[in-house]
Amino acid sequence: MQWVSLGQGPDMATANIFIVYAASATTVTLSPRSGGQGQPSYNPAANVTLLEGSGIVDGRMVAEVRCENCWGSWPAAPSGSSSAVVEGGEGGVGAATGAATGAGGGSGGFVMDPNGNETAWFWAYQLGAPLDSADVGAELGMHDVKGEMVWDLREAGFEVGETGLEEGFNPFA
Ligand code: HEM
Ligand SMILES: *[C@@H]1O[C@H](CO)[C@@H](O)[C@H](O)[C@H]1NC(C)=O
Ligand SMILES: *[C@@H]1O[C@H](CO)[C@@H](O)[C@H](O)[C@H]1NC(C)=O
Hints:
Elements: E1 3-8, E2 16-22, E3 28-34, E4 41-42, E5 48-50, E6 55-57, E7 60-62, E8 65-67, E9 119-126, E10 145-151
Antiparallel strand pairs: 1-2, 1-9, 2-3, 3-4, 5-8, 6-7, 9-10
Protein name: CBD9-like protein
Domain Cellobiose dehydrogenase-like cytochrome: 2-82
InterPro entries: Cellobiose_DH-like_cyt
């Protein structure tokens, strides 16, 4: 695999796209992107972090991701104004609503219900040699294979204590 990717949302135009590729023989780059025409562009408004446990493990690229603003489309990449700031909501619901109204946007974005039983996702990958790039804006070739799926997010929850999530907490570990 040269890159692997998960799209959160119903279509390329509005989705939050998570692309992963090798940064080195043991580490991966997580590149959050948006955009519907051809190669998606790096979106600095995505508030995502790679958790401990991510990397190249037993020959597989593994990305365990924390996202702070994934209940809706990430804001369109800022273009001179500071309007891309996302307000954190209680419990995260609606923390980021569709704001793809900037240049090139206009689709309105998606909003995802954390308890949604039929949420829309898709995926794609490209085969090839490792990119060995830590650049979140690395130039990527088109997918060899792609597909779609529907997930029941009620199956994906986990308990969170009174104090909320500790920094670096990894439910996948
Ligand atoms: C990296 C550069 C990329 C290029 C140049 C590219 C290009 C294209 C093109 C030309 C199409 C329309 C033709 C077709 O259906 O095969 C397409 C469709 C599609 N691509 Fe990509 N793509 C890229 C990345 C991605 C990524 C990262 C994902 C998913 C996570 C993705 C998911 C899809 C899906 C689901 C479709 C079919 C539905 C649609 O057209 O909205 N693509 N892509
Ligand atoms: C990312 O989310 C955290 C936690 O909600 C917040 O403290 C931080 O300011 C956010 N960063 C950006 C760039 O929005
Ligand atoms: C999701 O919920 C709707 C409305 O309650 C129901 O009609 C549908 O069958 C459910 N789908 C799944 C996969 O559980």
